[in-house]
Amino acid sequence: MQTHEIRKRFLDHFIKAGHVEVPSASLVLDDANQLFVIAGMVPFRPYFLGELEPPAPRVTSIQKCVRTLDIEEVGITTRHNTFFQMAGNFSFGDYFKREAITFAWTLLTNSIEDGGYGIDANRLWPTVYDDDDEAERIWREEIGVPAERIQRRGMKDNYWSMGVPGPCGPCSEIFYDRGPAYGREGGPEADEDRYIEIWNLVFMQNIRGEGVGKENFQILGPLPKKNIDTGMGIERVACILQNVDNVYETDLMRPVIDLAQELTGREYGQNDSDDVRFRVIADHARTAAMLIADGVTPSNEGRGYVLRRLLRRIIRALRLLGATDPVIGTIIDRVIVTMTPSYPNLATEAERIRDTAVAEETAFLKTLAAGTKLFADAATQTKEQGRGQISGSDAFTLHDTYGFPIDLTLEMAAEAGLSVDEKGFATLMTQQRERAKADANARKVGHADLSVYADFLEGAATEFTGFDELTSEARVLGLVSAGQRVRSAGAGSELEVILDRSPLYAESGGQVGDIGSLSSSDGLRVEVTDVQKVGKKLWLHKVRVLDGELVEGDEVLAQVDQAWRHGATQGHSGTHLVHAALRQVLGPDAHQAGSLNRPGYLRFDFNARGPVTEAQRAEIEEIANAAVEANYPVNTFQTGLAEAKAMGAMALFGENYGDVVRVVEIGGPFSMELCGGTHVANSAQVGPVTLVGESSVGSGIRRVEAYVGMDSFRYLSKERALLAGLASSLKVPSDQVPGRVELLVTKLRDAEKQLERMRADAAKASAAALIDSARQVGDVKVVAARLADGLGGGDLRSLVTDLRGRMSADAAVIALFSTADGKVPFTVGVTALGIEKGLRAGDFVSRIAPLVGGRGGGKQDLAQGSGTDASGIDAALKQIATIAGGDARG
Ligand code: SER
């Protein structure tokens, strides 16, 4: 059975049982604590926690998932993929264990004709959590699985959580017995290669607290309702139903391996190390394509780094298999073809996905060359030192800086007849991993701070009133100071306040939080400096108490700073105008990759292949300002996500299906975006839009910055003042400034040339005078002089060389000094006949240098130095004669 059919049957089965189908969410959700969606339930987290109303009590989905914890293991084992599709059915306080178990069982074991998967019931082994007698009983009595095929397992295997605080619960897993050829008898407890997990039924009923891993955490208490979260691995079921050994042989992966065979001329299934490479290519290419499709671009941190690693591992694997040309584009094309039936957006985005991968390939092939050179140097050095082993630190640098997986280094070393200090390498890798873990823990602690709010999260939510009013009456729900809940706070304290309603905008969607105040008739005065959201529904006001006392339960008047808000709306609407203009000029591929706006200023990041040209920049600015001039009305309205998308509204990541979304429309088709921000009433209120910068912020991502409103005007006005200043200094009207500057530059250049010529002439003239000044010391002619200030080493050198030529008929030494910029440059030359008599320019220099507080050196005919003490020049000049007189002759 083809994968697409497996997907379809799953959805049909659950739709028939009253579930609403929900499309897969993006792999990238708006949550800094999660790199990617790792399970089907992730987009539904707020429903389990009771933070949001689910779209229906029963839903089903096939969610795209990416897990990248063990990238290095991919292809070595054949059970895991970094990208996989998790089919799930979910109940939010509706049905529980009995139905969940029955639904799963019937789909797996119903015959093909009946719409099931037709799996032999005798091959299925359920597991249950240690003390879950209820689940065990259902499996045994109601489903009829013999007791000896049901195993009880501990927390590590049968208690599910996301690894971070959030919903959790005991689970029951279903394993498929692949038969004696795959391993030992004895159920999943004995052998998880033979008994392969295909479905996990989570009885989601508790909230997990802080802690590490799968076992060491506290259970904070029950969720508001008992829920069901199940996940069936589409790829694993495909393995079984397609009767293949492993996921790489299934219909969605094998075509990529086949293509890799064609491209490299090697064959899959011939030797283990090649096979791992083929699997790496098939696995990573699919994950990379899916990530790029969801807006991730390669970079050096976070999600972008994972993508970069994946792409580099593919490229490397291809090279190791013998590919010499850039081929990743072809591989990505094949992935797109196989995956498009389930993910039609891959076809429409094909060009962008491919280009992103190809750009990374081009970049990596360059590092690959640099890394190969580093390797060659390390290898040569190792051999020269008579050692046979490349050091662990070289291997680590190759891995860390040049992206060389250790297997490449090992293979290259073997070719060079060397080995690698793998232990040293492993130690460095462990150290790096520990640093990464420490980072990850630090991030989780940031998340843990939220547990303080768990009290208020129960049922509470802040009502945002700020679309309609700037002042609202509100009640203080809670106060938090330095991470601790407090009951009251006096003047001078800085803390966080949660209100039941608030007109202040909390930072999100690129718009910074509002500033404003809280006050009451009995003299309370509180300054609000920022507002952030917790758990999507509580507004956290960061405040400083100026006067009076803030007490939990108090009624206060919350007020937005009007001028601030006015600027904020200009900034945010301006961002939409720039975004729309950008897409008109650069095309629809200019995807938004992040934005920030605050009063008067905005910045906008987007995917682009190269810099925005000056002409494009001007055009974007023109279009944005024309939209301001058009005085478009700004309409906002609420609708379903699907409807909004159908209208052509631009959706970014982070929206959940079933969400009612807010659409902001400026001038009808001109700009339509899903957005929860605050906006002007009509586009004219944005004021002038001035693009001030265009830059790169990572591979494939550009950033534009702009001013709006009065800040835009002030910026332009400053520029004008600058120009006026220039015009007045140059004494021309401002439109003639560029011509005048060009003229001045030309004149300056001519003047410099002339000066140079004059210096040369003067030097020649002084050469004659210097020769005249030569003293006879014994049988040597000595020219030793301090010249005019301002001559550099180069000037002295050409003068000395000139004099050596002119005095070549004599045994002569020429020593010249000058002073320039606090330095004392000097040069000594000796003629050929002088050298015959034993004079050495280098000796002169090293002996006189200390007299002027400097150093120098050179050859026997010409040497130079530089000092810092001009007062020593006279002594140095005398010393020249002394040395020439005899004591320097070798
Ligand atoms: N959340 C569970 C899992 O990922 C079931 O969907 O296994």
Describe the structure.
By secondary structure, this protein is α+β, with helices and mostly antiparallel strands. It has five domains: 3-247, Bira Bifunctional Protein, Domain 2 (BirA Bifunctional Protein, domain 2, 2-Layer Sandwich), CATH 3.30.930.10; 254-443; 460-560, Beta Barrel (Elongation Factor Tu (Ef-tu), domain 3), CATH 2.40.30.130; 565-718, Threonyl-trna Synthetase, Chain A, domain 2 (Threonyl-tRNA Synthetase, Chain A, domain 2); 766-887, Roll (Diaminopimelate Epimerase, Chain A, domain 1), CATH 3.10.310. Helices cover 40% and strands 25% of the residues. It is built from 26 helices and 35 strands. Strands 1, 2, 3, 4, 5, 6, 7, 8 and 9 form a nine-stranded mixed beta sheet that branches. Strand 28 (689-696) and strand 29 (701-708) form a beta hairpin. The radius of gyration is 37 Å and the shape is globular. The termini are far apart. Mean pLDDT is 89; it is low at 441-448. Serine binds next to strand 8 and strand 9.
Secondary structure layout:
Blueprint: H1 3-16, E1 20-22, H2 45-48, E2 58-66, E3 83-92, H3 97-109, E4 124-129, H4 133-143, E5 151-153, H5 155-158, E6 159-161, E7 166-177, H6 187-190, E8 195-212, E9 216-233, H7 234-241, H8 254-264, H9 272-293, H10 302-320, H11 328-339, H12 345-348, H13 350-384, E10 389-390, H14 392-400, H15 406-415, E11 419-420, H16 422-448, H17 454-457, E12 463-464, E13 471-481, E14 484-486, E15 488-489, E16 494-499, E17 501-502, E18 516-519, E19 525-534, E20 538-547, E21 550-551, E22 555-560, H18 562-586, E23 592-598, E24 601-607, H19 614-629, E25 634-640, H20 641-646, E26 660-666, E27 671-674, E28 689-696, E29 701-708, H21 709-730, H22 737-772, E30 775-777, E31 780-786, H23 793-806, E32 812-817, E33 824-830, H24 832-836, H25 841-848, E34 855-858, E35 862-867, H26 873-887
Parallel strand pairs: 1-2, 4-5, 10-11, 12-17, 31-32
Antiparallel strand pairs: 2-3, 3-9, 4-7, 6-7, 7-8, 8-9, 13-14, 13-16, 13-22, 15-21, 16-20, 18-19, 18-22, 19-20, 23-24, 24-29, 25-26, 26-27, 28-29, 30-31, 32-33, 33-35, 34-35
Helix pairs in contact: 3-4, 8-9, 8-11, 9-10, 9-11, 9-13, 10-13, 11-13, 14-16, 18-19
Bound molecules: serine.
